[in-house]
Amino acid sequence: MRSVRTLGLFGVAGFNRGDDAISRSLIAGFRRERADITFVVPTLRKQDAADPRVRTFLLERKTLPGMARLVAAIARCDAIVVGGGSLVQDQLGGTRTKGVLGYAWTVTAIARALRKPLATAPLGVDDLTSDAGRVAARETLNRIGRITVRDVLSERNARILFGRADRPVHVACDPVFDFPVALDGAPREDTYVLSPAFEGRNEDRIVALFRAIATTLLERHPGCRVAVIAMDDRAEEDAGKAGLIVDALPEALRARVRIAVPATPEEAAAMLRTSRGVVAMRLHAMIMAYGHVPIYALSHTTKTDAMIETNHIPGMSTRGDGPVETIAMAAADGLAQPGPFTLQQSRATVLRTDLGAYYGETLAFLDRAIARS
Predict the structure, then answer these.
(1) How confident is the model at residue 268 (pLDDT cuts 50, 70, 90)?
(2) Other Cβ atoms closer than 10 A to 46
(3) Per-residue pLDDT averaged across 149-162, rounded?
(4) CB 124 within 8 A of CB 149
(5) Within 13 Å, how many C-alpha atoms sit on residue 362's CB side?
(6) What is the pLDDT of residues 85-103, one digit of tens each?
(7) How would you classify residue 358: left for phi > 0, otherwise alpha for psi between -120 and 50, otherwise beta?
(8) In a 3-state reduction of DSSP, which class is residue 180?
(9) Which of the chain's termini has less CB crowding within 10 Å, N or C?
(10) Which pLDDT tens digit goes with each residue over 18-39?
């Protein structure tokens, strides 16, 4: 029987260490099921994979040569896996042609035209805010044969889009819960790690919030330090704006704070997992740290709401305009609670076990689809 030998993993790796970690986790997971599989992976910046069985190409949808590369890459694959990450969302703009939702719509349309079987990585389906976004999302998901989402809120949102109860929607945790990083007995750092997410939101509010959190932690723990991690390395995102947080601190505290821009997801995970604790807006900073160190979550989207609700993580919404000092004290108190961290360590094992089943089931589905074609 014909089976998947070349698998396309169509996510959005390149700028964000969380998206990079998704790609690498998926490669590792599918390889555990089928060691000789070859991968085709788009990236948002030009980079060659060190692995000879991973073929990367530069994703450029705004140019004719870029679209030609995209079509050729899909044509090379036996099957396509779309995601993970929050591809089904319109918070930052999303239609059939714009945003990450437009990317998913385009990939699935091309794959369908080329008769390539489609499945998803465990992805996020956000609360959609526009009619155009809902139309694009519905059309995208309806082209995909096997849909797996990463949390129960995404499952609810997917079922709302379908408008019918008989369409199967599978649930498995985000692949980064099983991101493979060997720490080799690395010592625990006496550092708290803060992970902001600017993403075009209220910059002044985010700076004030993380200034208050850093100040509270440094004053409560005189011997500790703080690191602000930039999970997105673009100048217009975390890497370019983390310095605003440091500049807003009292001068006496600045020497105990540093900015870290990890070059790889492995560097990011090692930093998070050897810290004293993590306060994060970024979902994949939470996931990389989960079960390794205490976490306090600052939620601003469906995906982080789901992370808090289903994984025993203390946290609160930052959507309102509550006093930043109150949030900072809650974060410091939350990191000090031993109960949630103990529950997270137990749940992490369950999540990784459940995720293992996703890879075999997805390959089996794609194999059957290829055999029928």
Answers:
(1) very high
(2) 11
(3) 92
(4) yes
(5) 33
(6) 888 988 767 788 888 999 9
(7) alpha
(8) coil
(9) N
(10) 999 999 999 999 999 999 999 9
CA dihedral sign, ordered 210, 258, 280, 105: positive
Residue % of the chain over a pLDDT of 70: 98
Is 207 in the same domain as 160?
Answer: no
Q: What is the rounded distance in angstroms from the CA atom of residue 206 to the CA atom of residue 196?
A: 7
CB 110 within 8 A of CB 285: no
Cβ neighbours for 81, distance < 8 A, ≥ 6 positions apart: 7, 8, 9, 10, 26, 118, 119, 120, 121, 362
Q: Residue 246 in contact with residue 229, Cβ under 8 Å? A: no
Structure tokens at 304: 């982080």
Is the same domain home to 255 and 123? Answer: no
CA 154, CA 252: separation in Å to the nearest integer? 44
- Give the pLDDT score at 70: 97
Does residue 252 register a pLDDT over 90?
yes
Say if residue 40 is in the same domain as residue 120: yes
Residues 21 and 161 in one domain: yes
CA distance 316 to 281: 10
Spatial CA neighbour of 304 closest among 175, 154, 181: 154
Sorting pLDDT into bands at 50, 70 and 90, what band is 199?
Answer: confident
Cα–Cα dist 260/231, whole Å? 9
Going by pLDDT thresholds of 50, 70 and 90, the confidence category of residue 259 is very high
CATH number of the CATH domain containing 52: 3.40.50.2000
- pLDDT level of residue 353 (50, 70, 90 thresholds): confident
Instruction: Indicate the pLDDT class of residue 184, thresholds 50, 70 and 90.
Output: low
* Residue for token pair 């319109």: 90
The Cα-based distances of 28 to 95, 116, 189, 268 in angstroms read: 32, 22, 28, 18
Instruction: Please count the structural domains in the chain.
Output: 2
Residues paired with residue 229 on neighbouring β-strands, in sequence order: 260
Do 368 and 283 have their domain in common? Answer: no
> Which residue segment(s) compose the domain that 313 sits in?
191-345
Q: Is residue 121 part of a domain?
A: yes
d(CA 324, CA 335): 17
Please report where in the chains the tokens 């601003």 appear, as a residue: 300
